[in-house]
Design a protein that fits this description.
By secondary structure, this protein is an alpha+beta fold. The chain has ten helices and 18 strands. β1 and β2 form a beta hairpin. α2 packs across α3, α2 packs across α8 and α7 crosses α10. The longest helix has 34 residues.
Length: 444
């Protein structure tokens, strides 16, 4: 689908770059704002407008409750406007006689309404992660062969559902044992396998488990810029034949940060690509950031495990864990920025997210839906930060109101909101410059 869109004359390239980002933002923001809307409605707060997009409206209709639903011209985000909520700091517009305004609602109703937006984002992420687990299942740790990479599917006496007893005389008790081959620099053309097929022991040969197969492509990386895709088998790097992923890693680390030649086997054909490795920061086993030359890919195996179905309860638990993990990673990243371990140049704004979305959609569309879940959780978490104009700032204001039994001074709220907007716009400006610089770097 992405390839087809990219082939459209004149506008195809632009659509491929922008459309994935717009889809993600529209879904995530709609869910966020709908969370505010539905809980506000249940709390008796009237929503005047629910807008999908910003700017001038293109189409609108009014429901039986008097809420105007509209599609706006600029497909970036959206908003819900509650009755009486007319400015950046949510200060009352003077409609004190109206019972169904946001500002005159009970403290509990306002708190629930504001909190509902981020919670809706978390629920969206949970739903996506859980659904994907139920749909795709999870790799079994039993040493049973699920599939082989297309490049090795013929010519070897290895079949689906064969049980692996040993590889290169190394006993295989669990499928995870096979991942140890990732750390080996293989130079042999064939590898010895001992298999159990329907109770019969078979000695045969097969591919080295950790050949240089691309598992995933890191967005905004030399690999994505070069056009590498998940499933590509890298056969040579800078005219040196590649027989294992570890060998490829060593070749890349020893290479200079300049344009190199890369041959990959894709759909039965050898494709020659140009790639420029770059120096990137990685977290080592001790949690310390270090720099080394990389092209931005992860490895995959020549043989894949059997996929087993997941019970609903387990899928729910894993869906919660995955959502929680994204929140924890967001907290860790913010902490690292605060202590100076990570610079502001590592932050990404809308341009950067658009580039990431486009790269993922082009390299492996199967990662696109999980990206929606990750961004949804991240946006939900960021909105909970105690910053004026964000949901977290409103919640902080409600905590003050609950403790002090009076609302904060409107003048202070207004100036705090102005300061917050100015700071966020300034941060967005510098982040966007970083994004554009990164994009230009990979275009050159």
């Amino acid at each position: 689908m992405i390839d087809f869109i990219g082939s459209i004359p004149v506008i195809g390239g632009l659509l491929v770059s922008v459309l994935p980002f717009l889809i993600i933002i529209t879904i995530v923001v709609f869910v966020h704002e709908y969370g505010h809307y539905i809980i506000g409605r249940l709390c008796g707060i009237h929503a005047e407008v629910f807008s999908v997009g910003m700017g001038p409206k293109i189409y609108s209709w009014q429901d039986k409750r008097g809420t105007v639903w509209q599609i706006a011209a600029i497909p970036l985000g959206g908003y819900v406007k509650f009755l009486g909520d007319t400015n950046i700091s949510s200060i009352s517009s003077g409609l004190s006689h109206e019972k169904n305004t946001f500002n005159n609602a009970s403290l509990k109703s306002k708190t629930l309404t504001v909190l509902a937006g981020p919670l809706a984002n978390f629920l969206l992420s949970f739903f996506i992660f859980t659904s994907l687990l139920l749909w795709h299942g999870k790799p079994s740790n039993e040493p049973v062969i699920g599939n082989m990479h297309a490049a090795f599917s013929n010519g070897y006496n290895i079949e689906k559902n064969d049980i692996i007893i040993s590889i290169n005389d190394r006993k295989i008790s669990n499928f995870s044992d096979i991942y140890s081959f990732i750390y080996e620099n293989n130079s042999e053309q064939y590898t010895k396998y001992v298999l159990d097929r329907n109770g019969n022991k078979i000695k045969t040969i097969g591919p080295f488990p950790s050949v240089a197969i691309v598992g995933s492509v890191m967005p905004v990386s030399p690999a994505s810029s070069a056009g590498l895709k998940s499933g590509d088998l890298i056969t040579s790097f800078n005219n040196v034949s590649v027989t294992s992923f570890k060998q490829l890693q060593n070749l890349i680390i020893d290479s200079k940060v300049k344009k190199q030649n890369l041959d990959v086997l894709r759909d039965g054909k050898i494709i020659s690509l140009s790639i420029t490795p770059m120096l990137r920061e990685f977290q080592n086993a001790n949690g310390v950031l270090e720099k080394k030359v990389s092209i931005g890919i992860s490895s995959s195996l020549a043989i894949s495990p059997f996929i087993e179905t997941i019970p609903l309860i387990e899928a729910i638990k894993l869906g919660i864990q995955k959502t929680y993990l994204v929140i924890i990673q967001s907290i860790k990243q913010i902490y690292r920025i605060i202590i100076g371990e990570i610079g502001f140049d590592n932050l990404q704004g809308p341009v950067g997210i658009a580039h990431v979305s486009s790269d993922i959609a082009k390299s492996d569309i199967s990662y696109f839906i999980p990206l929606i879940a990750i961004i949804s959780t991240s946006i939900g978490f960021l909105n909970l930060l105690p910053i004026p104009i964000l949901d977290g700032g409103h919640l902080l204001m409600f905590v003050y109101e609950g403790i002090m039994k009076r609302k904060p001074n409107p003048k202070y709220l207004y100036y705090a909101a102005i300061l917050a907007i100015s700071s966020l716009l300034t941060l967005m400006f510098f982040v966007s410059i970083n994004d554009i610089s990164r994009v230009l770097l990979f275009l050159n």
